[in-house]
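User: Show me a protein chain along with its predicted structure.
Assistant: Here is one chain, sequence first, then structure tokens.
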Amino acid sequence: MRTLGVDLAAATKKTAGAVIEWSDNRARLAHLALDVDDQAIVDLFGTCDMTGVDCPVGWPDALIPFLAGHLDFDAAPVLEHDGIAGRRLLAYRDTDRFCTAQTGLIPLSVSADRLAHPAMRCAVIQAKIASLHGPQLRDGSGRLAEVYPAASLKIWGLNGRGYKGRGVPEAERLSLLLAELEKQAPWLDLAGHRDQITASDDLFDAVIASLTARAVARRRTLLPDAAHAAAARSEGWIHLPSCGLDGLPG
């Protein structure tokens, strides 16, 4: 099995990709790259069994009628979201609320925060993938799944605080975090890429996304039940690992 992890940013230069090859209770980092463009992502998707993308793959269901109502001067769907509670339905998806309930983490809003630009790029990439490989369902039941490295790290007992950034403290924290990952996942061969990863939190997140993609492929994530299934199909679903790191190989 090959899994692809993509840490998707609005800009190509901040986008990272990591491919892990899995066999015989071992895993090897076969490809690692920064400054990854759309075509490279589409090409890598075609060579991998499962792709985990660190970016929302959809928007809140409530947002479209709200915007359409505003555009058409139709007050009813706009007034349905009067007040802070109503605006939260426009800002956060069902999966975001589920993730918070499970992990205590609050994902950034795809419609009201800086994730909006990467999500627009992600939508275009999904369309490009669909033209070559068929549409990939947004609930992750195909070969593309939404992942959230911060949540995966927390579930796996890794302290993911303080490693993002370009300063010395962040670099030291990232090095310690990678060392802890290597300790807990001795079956993972970084194939000489350790220095690259410790120099880039984007590359590190891509590796975590690829590891999470393995959990998705093995059906070892929290899946949407009947209460969440419809929203997951339209808005997307963040796949949270339901196993430890030791449950990934094999």
